[in-house]
Design a protein that fits this description.
The protein is mainly α. The chain is 56% helix and 8% strand.
Length: 160
């Protein structure tokens, strides 16, 4: 589940702030920084909710420093990666989609949700990188593990 975050971490280490904050027409003029902020803020909410056990992804800070300063994004990403060490526990998810009703969940389940959400945004970030001429050599960047597995099964074996 941590692969998507480490892929993002690797990309941000190779990117400069100008590319991070460039509005991209192919992304409806969003920036890679905006997508990164969105990814990171959902993880931050989960981590901040760990103690009391109630998660509310609808109540986000929308911290502009995360989308405008690549160094801040990298710093927050490091702390999120460290959070994967927390043990699983039962939690409750509150959502406007369900009229504020709480839904039973767990920390690990929400890490999985955040990982899949991150992968979705990495696919968009990859499109933005293509527009900027930033080469992503990792063929799995922005792909779900099930897609990677399927593609690997479709590749003919070198021995046949």
């Amino acid at each position: 589940m941590i692969t998507a975050l480490t892929q993002l971490q690797s990309l941000l280490r190779r990117m400069n702030n100008q590319a991070y904050t460039a509005p991209l027409p192919v992304l409806s003029h969003a920036t890679i920084g905006q997508h990164t902020r969105h990814i990171l803020e959902l993880y931050q909410i989960l981590i901040a909710s760990y103690k009391d056990g109630i998660i509310d992804y609808d109540n986000r800070e929308r911290n502009l420093a995360l989308q405008n300063d690549i160094t801040e994004g990298q710093r927050v990403l490091e702390t999120i990666i460290e959070s994967y060490q927390l043990p699983d526990k039962k939690m409750s998810l509150s959502s406007m989609q369900y009229g504020g009703e709480n839904i039973d969940t767990s920390f690990k389940r929400e890490l999985l949700y955040n990982s899949e959400h991150c992968i979705h945004h990495l696919a968009l970030i990859r499109i933005g990188c293509d527009q900027l001429g930033i080469i992503i050599e990792d063929d799995t960047f922005g792909l779900a593990p099930s897609t990677v597995k399927y593609r690997n099964q479709c590749v003919p074996s070198a021995t046949t």
